[in-house]
Amino acid sequence: MATLYLIEQNTVLRKTGDRLLLCKKSHGKSGGPRVSDILLDLPCSDVDHVMLFGNVQVTTQALQEMLEHGIEFALFTLSGKLLGQLTPPVEKQRAKRKKQTAIAFCSLPFALCFLLSCASIAKIIPRA
Predict the structure, then answer these.
(1) Contact 71, 48 (CB under 8 A)
(2) How much is the average pLDDT of 52-67?
């Protein structure tokens, strides 16, 4: 997973499907970005955090998509002063942690046997 630092000024972060697009600002009618205006195209699944610096706009749809994918978002001035941040209410790695917990509980009988064998060995060894 990656942290995306957006420093290109006069751009717009938008979304299409499950992807984030960084595009040049278009002047005039908007019918979606032209291919030549797209500076960056990333799937949301590859991003953990988005750090936005200076004059970079974000569409409401892109913000919503980031929150739905568990992507944290922070807004900074061009000089780097933190202005604010959005953090999704649900941790992105929740499914991964559930699997880790399930594996840990599956290996619980092994750990219990190990502890019991250590306890029985401790009983055999005389104390000085």
Answers:
(1) yes
(2) 95
Do 57 and 22 meet the contact criterion of CB atoms below 8 Å apart?
no
CATH number, domain containing residue 81: 3.100.10.20
User: Which pair of structure tokens corresponds to residue 1?
Assistant: 């997973």
Cβ within 8 Å of residue 55, ≥6 positions away: 9, 10, 78
pLDDT for 37 equals 85
Q: Give the torsion through C-alpha atoms of 2, 87, 37, 26, to 10 deg.
A: -160
Which H or E element spans position 61? Answer: helix 60-68
85 near 74, Cβ under 8 Å? yes
State the distance between the two ends of the chain, measured CA to CA, in whole angstroms. 54
User: Residue 114 is part of which domain span?
Assistant: 94-124
Residues 55 and 110 in one domain: no
Burial, 43: exposed, middle or buried (Cβ in 10 Å; 0-12, 13-18, 19+)?
Answer: exposed
